Amino acid sequence: MAHRKVISSLDQHVEILQYILYIFNTIFFIAASALFALTLWVRFRNEMGDYIEGLSIFYYWNANTVFMYMVMTVIIFILLLAASAFLLDNGLEDSHLLPFIQDSMRSLIHQYQWDVAARRSVDIIQENIGCCGGYSADDYSTIHLPVPDTCRDQITGNQFKYSCGEVLSQYLEILTGWITGISLSICLFQCFSMVATICLWHLIREMESR
After folding, report:
1. φ, ψ (nearest 5 deg) of residue 159
2. Inter-CA distances, 49 with 34, 36, 37, 39, 59, Å
3. 115 neighbors 90 (Cβ within 8 angstroms)
4. Would the pLDDT of 3 be above 60?
5. CB–CB of 164/131 below 8 Å?
6. Residues 6+ apart with CB under 8 A from 166
7. Residue pair 120/113 in contact by the 8 Å Cβ criterion
8. Residue 60 CB neighbour total at 10 angstroms
9. Taking the mean position of all CA atoms in its chain, how far away is CA 132?
10. Among the four 2, 5, 66, 113, which has the fewest Cβ within 10 Å?
11. Ramachandran sector of residue 130 (left: φ over 0; alpha: ψ -120 to 50; beta: rest)
């Protein structure tokens, strides 16, 4: 019992820290969006356009600025590739995600009898996505529990055939494909951007050397 309380306390602390990170990331996203909107507003103000055109500030480029842009583009390119690889390694049906979902679901089922929150989570998942158990319906029989009604179709009464690990991982695999596809598309466009940037850098270096 004491060991169970320690685990529950650690879970609560982890959950709190996760929410703190979510809040900080939301703040960072809002601040970055506001900063981007501010720069666009400054750039496209009517009087700013006159200043830029009159002073030819639009052509104010130097090799260091372009080189810095190249470095940042390469870093983002590498991060996107790494994130895509990580997502494919953990977001496909036959990846590390499946056993994690199965173990998490079975852990909740082991708490099904005495933990109201665990029972609610299991029932919501099983009823909403049409599945039963983490590995299978045997997750209930192995701990001498009857298979709950949420494991059955509410119309036909038939027990769901597939486990929640299988159904959830298949659903997340589709989302993983979309996200990874978009990330790799961005990487492709960054390659074209890098070619244009390198050409611009060489031209500016040539102009500065004159």
Report:
1. -75, 140
2. 21, 18, 16, 13, 13
3. no
4. no
5. yes
6. 93, 98, 131
7. no
8. 9
9. 26
10. 2
11. left
